[in-house]
Amino acid sequence: MNILETINCPDDLKKLSPEELSVLAQEMRDLMIETVLANGGHLASNLGVVELTIALHQLFHSPTDRIIFDTSHQCYAHKMLTGRARDFRSIRTRGGYSGFYEPSESPHDVTVMGHAGCGPSLALGLAVGETLKGGSGYTVCVIGDGALTAGLAYEGLSNIIQQAPRNLMVILNDNGMSISENVGWMAQWRKRWLPHLRDQLELDADFQSLESLTEALAPKVPLGPLVLSLGRGIKNVIGKAITPELGHFWEEMGFTYLGPVDGHNIEELEDTLARARRYSDRVPLVHVLTQKGRGYTPAEGNPVQYHQPSSPKAGAGLTYSQAFADTLGLLMAQDQRIVAISAAMLDGTGLAALKTRFPNRVFDVGICEQHAVSMAAGMARAGLKPVFCVYSTFLQRAFDQVVHDVCLNDLPVVFGVDRAGIVGQDGKTHQGLYDMAYMRIPPNMVLAVPRDENELGQLLYTAINQDHPFTIRYPRGEGIGVGIDMELRNIQVGTAEIVREGKDICLAAVGPLVHTALSAALDLAQKGVEAQVVNVRFVKPIDPALIEELCEHFTDVVVLEEGTLLGGVGAAILEAISRKGLSRPRVHQASVGDIFLEHGGTGELRHTLGLDSEGIVERVQSILGGG
Ligand SMILES: Cc1ncc(C[n+]2csc(CCOP(=O)(O)OP(=O)(O)O)c2C)c(N)n1
Questions:
Q1: Which of 73, 101, 300, 428 has most ligand 1 atoms within 8 Å of its beta carbon, as the pocket-test mutant?
Q2: Ligand 1 centroid, distance to 179 Cα (angstroms)
Q3: Are 429 and 523 in a shared domain?
């Protein structure tokens, strides 16, 4: 039996010797590597926080004390230490553990999270709640240097300083990386101080053993406390001589800055965290230096690729992100006004190659979706043609900027909404299910959904060549495999496309579901049912000719969408029919429903929801059979 198998709860850790803890860390890394290489998932970030997580669970008593990992993509070690090592291999699979915090799995997962920057605010809320309840629980918020590019994080930190709870600690998990290399002031601060950080690390290690000894002796010897505080003073002076301003920013902000600490030295971590916990005059901020990918050479060498290595089942076909970036590259080469923006997702959105090609016209702004949208509005006002490539789930955060800065001013900002629809194993925090509902609300917005990777390029061309806000949503992963037209052409805004004629029922779909509907129509034809298939293409404005056609020729229409039941394309069609004062055709919405969709394979999830060819055939048969 290895040591990890003996850990059923964090208390079991407390029985282990330092040597055993270091063997445990290795076992945890082995399990992480084996699992992620089989299932996909976040690897490099998790390898980097093994010792930090061990130290936290040694010192604090979760779940009475609450440990929040901002974003929670780096919670694998935490899951292993809180009773989930045995079935850890099920992570991200349907019915298995989530890859993020999931309170229904364990009371140690404080709250569902997957978006960056909300950790400080959540932690403050928990700490305040605990105080008002009269509880004694402590709250720890671990936040990465990447997440610290998010404006929301500073709203939380600023209010933490204001409220100064005595039961809260912030830990800066500094590995110099977001998914790609980090950007912004934090990254510059780090680069400036990195050589000094090393000196400070050594000083801290020496001082810490001395401080622990003095702390133990202080109550027992005369003048002990005086010697201790004198020692702290001297250390501060030496520290400041080596690194005159390190920590200055945090101290000025109102924290007590401790560190930097070697994030792979469990003893040093425990000592510093214990010290920080005793400081109660100001909220402590512990600066921990970790290495992304630690202990696995390929990940240490390429933390970007190993942030979330693609699942082994991923194929090699052209992805939607790549198709979008390819067309964008063509257009940028022809028109100097076109600029591209990413909020810390250069690699995922396919913009990394464009950044190399057009270094001054591709902007990685950090985890700052709100800022990205407002900046795009400013750029459009300045005469540029900005394209913001963003995952559907993360754009949610910038809804106000979409409405207020872009649509209210009717500015030509193009939103390339990637990972729209079911994303699969990342689960409910990352499913892209709401964009059709929220992006069709603001006046002036056009909202288009290409049926395949070829139409995606045509719609981007269309979007760039008009003067209004324009959203194109497209899914994660590979396209249908259709040929790509050499010539880009304009598609008339607000026009749907009939892709198959039929008289018995209409299947109106958006995105690749058009192809699924076509395949269902072929099956239905074998059973004597002639289904019409329509590529709705524009959710807004919805094609008036399509609505006419539906009202005149059909009793039933099935609307197929990878989105929420409320507010999406099904709702748009229902509203349009209802505005005509008609109650026919009957609209059957085949969507994800009004639920938060769990993790699992995309194929499995679609099957369960009836959004595959088989499900559509069954649905049509039940409708036509009177079911
Ligand atoms: C609002 C939001 N935008 C983008 C992301 C995608 N994302 C996940 S982890 C990550 C990088 C986080 O970096 P950091 O906080 O330093 O953690 P590390 O992975 O380096 O440990 C990004 C950009 C997200 N989760 N949330």
A1: 73
A2: 6
A3: no
Tokens (6 digits) for 500: 């198959």
Tell me the residue type at 488: L
End-to-end Cα, the chain, rounded Å: 56
> 71 CA to middle of ligand 1, Å?
7
Same domain membership, residue 78 and residue 116: yes
**Residue 259 has what pLDDT?**
87
Q: Are residues 577 and 441 in the same domain?
A: no
Using one digit for the tens of pLDDT, what is the confidence trace for 245-284? 678 889 999 999 998 999 999 999 999 999 999 987 899 9
Longest dimension (CA), the chain: 97
With respect to residue 538, please indicate whether it lies within any of the assigned structural domains. yes
Are 618 and 554 contained in the same domain? yes
In 3D space, the residue among 174, 131, 123 whose CA is nearest the CA of residue 152 turns out to be 123
Instruction: Say whether both 507 and 588 belong to one domain.
Output: yes
Q: 292 CB less than 6 Å from ligand 1?
A: yes
φ/ψ bin of 392: left (φ > 0), alpha (ψ from -120 to 50), beta (otherwise) = alpha
d(CA 308, CA 316): 17
Length of the chain: 627
Residue 413 near ligand 1, beta carbon < 6 Å: no
| CATH assignment at residue 209 | 3.40.50.970
What are the backbone dihedrals phi and psi of residue 89, each rounded to the nearest 5 degrees, phi first?
-65, -10
- Both tokens of 419, joined, read 């990972």
Q: Are residues 468 and 581 in the same domain?
A: no
Residue 111 lies in a domain: yes
CATH number of the domain encompassing residue 575: 3.40.50.920
Residues 297 and 183 in one domain: yes
Check if the beta carbon of residue 429 is closer than 8 Å to that of residue 98.
Answer: no
Cβ(502) – ligand 1 distance below 6 Å = no
In a domain, 573, yes or no: yes
Residue 454 phi/psi, 5-degree rounding, is -75, -45
224 part of a folded domain? yes
Q: End of a domain among 271, 301, 331?
A: 301
Cα separation, 265 vs 259, in Å, equals 13
Give the chain's residues under pLDDT 70.
Answer: 198-216, 218, 232, 235-245, 311-314, 626-627
Q: Are 613 and 523 in contact (CB under 8 A)?
A: yes
Residues 510 and 436 in one domain: no
Domains identified in the chain, total number: 3
pLDDT, one tens digit per residue, over 451-469 is: 999 999 999 999 999 999 9
**C-alpha–C-alpha distance, residues 250 and 3, integer Å:** 38
* Ligand 1 atom showing the smallest separation from residue 430 Cα: 25
Pocket of ligand 1 contains residue 344 by CB under 6 Å: yes
| Residue 385 falls in the annotated catalytic set | no
* Domain of residue 245, residue span: 4-301
